Structures are given as C-alpha cells and as structure tokens.
Amino acid sequence: MKLLQIQSSATEGASVSRQLVETITTAIAEAMPGLEVVTRDLAAHELPHLSAERMPVVRAGKTEDLTPVQQDELALAEAVLDEFLSADVVVVGAPMYNFSVPSQLKAWIDRLARAGRTFRYGPNGAEGLAGGRKVIVVSSRGGVYSSNPAMAAFEHQESWLKAVFSFIGITDVEIVRAEGIGMGPEARAKAIAAAEAEIARLVPQAVAA
Ligand SMILES: Cc1cc2nc3c(=O)[nH]c(=O)nc-3n(C[C@H](O)[C@H](O)[C@H](O)COP(=O)(O)O)c2cc1C
Description:
Blueprint: E1 2-7, H1 16-31, E2 36-41, H2 55-59, H3 68-85, E3 89-95, H4 103-112, E4 119-122, E5 125-128, E6 134-141, H5 158-167, E7 173-179, H6 185-208
Parallel strand pairs: 1-2, 1-3, 3-6, 6-7
Antiparallel strand pairs: 4-5
Bound molecules: flavin mononucleotide.
The site of flavin mononucleotide has 17 residues, from helix 1 and strand 6.
C-alpha cells in the first residue's frame, strides 16, 4: 500500500494544511504498518508553468527530437504521473489562494490531466482512466464558504479539485476542511479541531477500504 502526500502551502511552520496532511499520513501509517509514504512538496520544489516549449510533451506526448527543456519536462511529467498512478491513497494539501488553489498545485494538476493516460475522449465524451485510488483533499481557507451562500460563487478550490479528479475517473474524494482560519484565534482553533474530528472519522474507513 502506497500513500502519496502532496504539500502546496507556501507557508511553512504555521501552515494549517501542512499540519493536517501530516496528521492524516501519520494516522494511516500507524494503522497500516509497512505503508510506503512518498512526499511531493510543490512549494519547496516548484513545477514550472506549462510554457510553449514544454506543452508538446504534456499535451501531445512528444518524446523525440526534444530540446533540453523538453527533456526536463518529459522526466518531470513522467515522474509526477508515475508517482500518482502508483499510489493507493493521495492526500492533497490545498490551501485557498485567491478563491482557487496555489499555482504550484495547479502546475501539478496540469501534469495529471493527460490525454490517453488519465482520460480520453470517446463517442460518449470524456472518460476518466485513473480510478481505483482514494484522494483526500485537505482544504484550508481564511474565510467561510461552506455555510455562507453569499460566498458560494467565490469557491473555486474544493469544487475545482473535485471536478478535476472526477474528470480523470476518481470519484472517491473526501474533503477535510479547515475554514475560517483568518477569522481570529478562536475560529482558527475551532476549524482545526473540526478538521481533526473529520480525520478521526475518515481514517478508519480509508484503512478498511
Ligand atoms: C496568497 C494568499 C491568498 C489567499 N486567498 C484567500 C482567499 O481567496 N480566500 C480565503 O478565504 N482565504 C485566502 N487566503 C487565506 C488562506 O486560505 C488561509 O490562510 C489558509 O490557512 C492557508 O492555508 P495554509 O495555512 O495551509 O497555508 C489566502 C492566503 C494567501 C497566502
């Protein structure tokens, strides 16, 4: 059994999502001796944007006559995809940045959504090819969106990640949410406690699956 943890917060020590991703990983590892844990820290080791030079490798599957940048892209894109496809559980730290996710996390997603590898278009439209794994998204955000209808239109973080994972065939997506982090120490502590309670509920299910 293999667990891939993805960290994307650009904040180090005080990051809520980093802390909760570690809590989930530790809890699953304690319940599953022998669990292999792989970490990709997208803030410490940023993936480049998809430039015009990199694009043919990722979008058209170009593997020959590569420039040095394209050789770099091929190695990166294959490593990211192999790491993801070989994991049984993927824990994704996803802070909200400007109503969406950090661009570091977007760059990782840009290497997961690969035609012919994780999805394909057929007569019935798009078909996801990357099912069979569990994804746990740790959502941290300064404001409150889940219970505030006025803010629903601003929420492009959890909903976007769910849509992307569903597009590539992953329907087993759980959200661990800590929201209201920017609304004072009491709200922050309450949000983290709620997320920890959700982790305590989820982990036994993830281990039993
Ligand atoms: C660049 C940046 C943009 C942010 N944008 C939003 C936002 O649009 N909405 C929100 O509710 N919180 C926003 N926040 C607050 C973070 O979502 C919040 O601090 C969260 O805890 C960050 O996750 P982390 O603690 O794991 O770093 C932003 C924070 C940063 C650093």
